[in-house]
Each structure stands twice: as C-alpha cells, then as structure tokens.
Amino acid sequence: MQISEIVRSCSLFALAQTLVWFQLYSHYIWEWWQNRPLLCAFVFGVPASICFWYGTRIAVDASNEAWTSRMLGFGMSYVTFPILTWWLLGESMFTTKTMICVFLSFLIVTVQLFWR
Questions:
Q1: pLDDT by residue (tens digit) across 55-65?
Q2: What's this model's pTM, rounded to 2 decimal places?
C-alpha cells in the first residue's frame, strides 16, 4: 500500500467533507445562504463530488480495496465535522460521546490502513 497516495486520498476526502459541511450548514452561519439551496448545492456540492471521486479512485488504486476508500471517507468526516461545528457553530466537540466517536474514527482508519 502506498502511504503517500493514502495521505493524498485523505486530503481530498477532508476537503470534500469540509465543502459538504458548508453546503449543509452555511445557512446557519450566514443569512445570505438561507434561501439559496440550489446555488449552495452547486457551489459546494460539485467541487465536493469531484474531490470524493478522485479521493476514492486514489484510495482504491493504492489499496486494491473499495472498503478502504469508504472507511477513509467516513473517518475523515469525523475529523472535519467536529472541528467545523465547534469553530463555526460553537457546539463543543469535547463531550464524551463525540470524543469516543472521534477516537473510533481514527481506529477505523488505522484498521483499514494497517490490518492485512
């Protein structure tokens, strides 16, 4: 498995997850987005889809397994979501439930990367 390609894939997944976060929550931050769901879908959704597509392709090519890309995408969502939600919406990620989920997401990614 090519670790540099997995890191590249994770970076694309993190960017995609960040774009999706803004697609779904920007109307809670900026009033301007409240009545523009289609524009929001195009502005954030199209680049996110492209990042997911390339991230998936790179992860599958590097690991020879579709499940690796799925778990990496899932795991990266538990990195980006808590940070963005805490930073921009003021919801703490430092609850027992959330911290366990973040730990488990790292564990899932670790299992996919290193369990042969």
A1: 999 999 999 99
A2: 0.84
